[in-house]
What we know:
The complex is a heterotrimer of chains A (320), B (354) and C (333).
Chain A: H1 26-38, H2 41-58, H3 60-63, H4 109-145, H5 147-161, H6 165-176, H7 181-208, H8 211-218, H9 223-259, H10 271-282, H11 288-315
Helix pairs in contact in A: 1-11, 2-4, 2-11, 4-5, 4-7, 4-9, 5-7, 6-7, 7-9, 8-9, 9-10, 9-11, 10-11
Chain B: H1 3-7, H2 16-22, E1 33-44, E2 47-59, E3 64-68, H3 75-83, E4 91-100, E5 103-104, H4 110-116, E6 121-124, H5 128-131, H6 138-150, H7 154-167, H8 173-176, H9 186-198, E7 204-208, H10 216-233, E8 236-241, H11 244-250, E9 253-258, E10 261-267, H12 268-273, H13 278-285, H14 325-329, E11 335-338, E12 341-343, H15 348-353
Parallel strand pairs in B: 3-8, 3-9, 6-7, 7-8
Antiparallel strand pairs in B: 1-2, 1-4, 4-5, 9-10, 10-12, 11-12
Chain C: H1 2-34, H2 37-41, H3 49-58, H4 74-85, H5 98-133, H6 138-152, H7 155-176, H8 181-186, H9 201-227, H10 230-237, H11 242-264, H12 266-279, H13 285-295, H14 298-326
Helix pairs in contact in C: 1-14, 5-6, 5-9, 5-11, 5-12, 6-9, 7-9, 7-12, 9-11, 9-12, 10-11, 11-14, 12-13, 13-14
Amino acid sequence: MGSTSPATEDPGAVPTGTPARGPSASGSIWKDAGRQLIRNPVFIVCSLIVLVVVSWALFPTLWTDKGKLECDININRTPPSWFPGTPPPGYDTDLDGYPLGTTTLGCDMYSQLIWGARPSIVVAVVVTALTALIGTTLGLWAGYYGGRVDTVISRVTDIFLGLPFLLGALLFLALLKSQSIWAVILVLVVLGWTQMARIVRGTALSLRDQDFVEAARAMGATNHRIILRHILPNALAPIIVLCTIYIGSFIAAEATLTFLGVGLKPPEVSWGITIAQGQAFAVAGFPHLLVFPCTVLVVTVLSFILMGDALRDALDPKGR
Amino acid sequence: MSDSDILSAGPVPEPADSKAIASLHFDPTAPLLDVQELRVDFHTHEGVAHAVNGVSFTLEAGRTLGILGESGCGKSVTAQAIMGILDSPPARVVGGRVLLSGVDLLTLNEDDRRQVRANRIGMVFQDALSALNPVFKVGWQLGELFRKRLGYSRTQARHEAVRLLDLVGIPAAAQRVDDYPHQFSGGMRQRVMIAMALALDPDVIIADEPTTALDVTVQAQIMKLLADLQAERNMGLILITHDIGVVADVADDICVMYAGREVEKADVYSIYDKPAHPYTQALLESIPRVDMKGKQLASIQGLPPNLTQMPPGCAFHPRCRFARQRCRDDTPPLYTVSPGRLSACHFFQEVLDT
Amino acid sequence: MGPYAVRRVLQFIPVLIGTLFLLHYMTVLSFQINGNPVRALFGDRQPPPETIAALTRAFGLDDPCLEQTGNPCIGMFVERMTGYFGGDFGVDFNQQPVVDLIKRAAPVTLRLTLLAIVFESVVGILAGVLAGLRKDRFADNFVRVVTVLAISVPIFVLGVLTQIVFGLYVGNWVRDRGAPDWVQAIFSVSYQSDFPWASLVIPAMVLGATTLGVVARMTRTGLIESLRSDYVRTGKAKGLKSRRIVGIHALRNCLIPVITLIGIDIGTLMAGAIVTEGIFNIPGIGGLVYRAAVTGETAIIMAVVPLLVLVYLVASLLVDLLYAVLDPRIRYG
């Protein structure tokens, strides 16, 4: 996942499910994990933040009555009155109804941040869902069947992993010459599935020869059934942990690509665009143009990643 | 310095550590190792576990003491407490004395304590594969003792490492010093461990389950090696094991531990002849014997108690076939069965007579 | 060691060719779908068809397979690869040999990456050791919070914020007090060619921050695990000083994966360099790639990106071999 992803941090740290136990035991793992998570303040705070941001994305009008493109260039780059530091001369800070000041284009910073949640969340959720689907399927096949299937899938994974994530995404998007949300999703999925496939493959490989799988095979279960009923449920824990972390990473990746000018572009409203537009002026004495969108972005990404970490700790039986 | 210089090197450089140790006044007439009422607690989430509960024994030079017990009975903790290598927290020595030639090790400061290790007391661990550092050559790990403790040069240390490997019977020692631990077989690795414990010529060796991880045939070789070296150097040997067969051959005295306490102490012959504690008796009955072939092998019912919630009275009573009300109420003291023979059972006479 | 190295190199070749082919196919598809990038050079003007044809030929984009959408243009790929091995990387849209562009930009990026690696290893390992030794105490919690931040904050956010705080506020403060030039260069908002090292210090810290977080966390976990291991207990039984037990015995073991990680993360650094060099206006390889990607200069992309990928893959290969040297257990595996 390149520079934007903490998921590359330490693949070994992802819990490898509950390989020693049969599928029947996994129920209690989830219940235990749930009990542990409810008592974890970090997890609670992060989930609340995630809920708020998701509600921005789903129902922005609940949070703001200003329109997405309701901007007035005459009042652009105005810092809010409470913001420390003196604004450059000629900038009035006594604007009513602009709690976070205005953006580079004179839109209300607060409502731009609300509207900006939607593309980030849509990209991140869709990409994560598709990556999980592709990565899990290929990983399960490679790990379970082994042999030639595994060789082909593993080599293809290697080739994609040979391309540093951000480098590849930048390149592909530039070559695609399309800056729609769908182009971003396509490129992120194409480059993002490999890590998931690799981890699921590892889990499937370790589960394949477990006794309960052998037992199912001896009872005449089809491969298809063994994968769905026995391997997948046990591989679910690392997949879910990885997905939570992925959502955060893909939000960061989308913002990074947008910032670099190959992701989304105006009139779309997104955090990455707001930051990119603010960057030039921030150095010229308007730091609020960066501080607010960066804070929102960082807090959101951090919440997903910490949620994933908490889930990992809760689902990893060794950690207790 | 050339090689030949080292081989003919007369006086060994004045060891930095032995000087510091000289500040301690070891008394050659005192017992070699005298452990008195040693107590160790573990502070865990479930509460305080009394891992060692007042253990006492004496070890003289040239003698072998076998400490026998199930896993979790506190025998390894006792050994580590004597060595001073317990992880604290969670472990804490809360009482007792460990007198080495009259010096109480528990009262020493950390630096003096460190100097005693390896120099006066050597230790052989159970699993040599994990006890040796996987990324260093065995010769380096052996030589480290000489370089860091005695200030030897690299070449001298290597020379010593070869000598030691040769001493513990590793073939082609001069070549094998440059091998890594994983390149040795289990038995050879344990020999390396023994060489390490012997390196600084200690007075006492503590061997914690030295043969548990090994094949039966190799076990015998390792035990013989330990016994030979001990006799040759007139060391005191503490042999910790759960295997009653291992101690039988080499130990002079035996101390049986259960749930952090000694339950029986005697010389090896009396114990094997007639155990004076039901636990020892049960242990002896659980050895498979050729003359009992085809019969059900005796095993001890139940599990050792949770050390955070010890049963009242005698800790063994829930599993004991002699148990009665008194055992649930009164903790038995160590009764003197005969001179030099102790048993922590109210009804030792009954046990002796069965 | 020998057979292991040979096997790794043999595995490496198909991956390298595969990755290069993937890049090639992407540029070909882009041409086939979006049309000739040469035309885009002229914007709204309509140059005579002969000019376009001549330029297209000069850039090596005149292969008829580029007219057939989906055609992988194997012939072109082979031609390009032969060119690469002969040191011919083509020319950019200004007719400059790409090799020259790389030669000019590479030293800057090399310095930046080197500083970043030094920063992330030294600070990361020290922080990890500190946290590991003081587990669950203040220092540990502090390091854990900072590293989570370093890992989660996207590098461009870190870049723009650092630029404001250090380049602008601290920079102005330093300049107001007439600090020496090199200090001013450290706290400047952009690269200064007069101070090729000093003005890269802060960008390098930004670039290395992500990996630093990971390095610190791995060192911490590894050290805690090592300190619980049997060989550390043996070290105590040998009467070694605890500084030696931690510094030699425990650290040597837990640094093996950390060193591997630092090597593998060269890929992350190169990708991050695109962002960092963009923000701090550094004329390195990253900036080159970024500009080429935006203007669609196939020649530069097809020369520089494979080069970066090659560096990355070779680095992973070397790290793999280094691992075998550091950990004797897998040397013969």
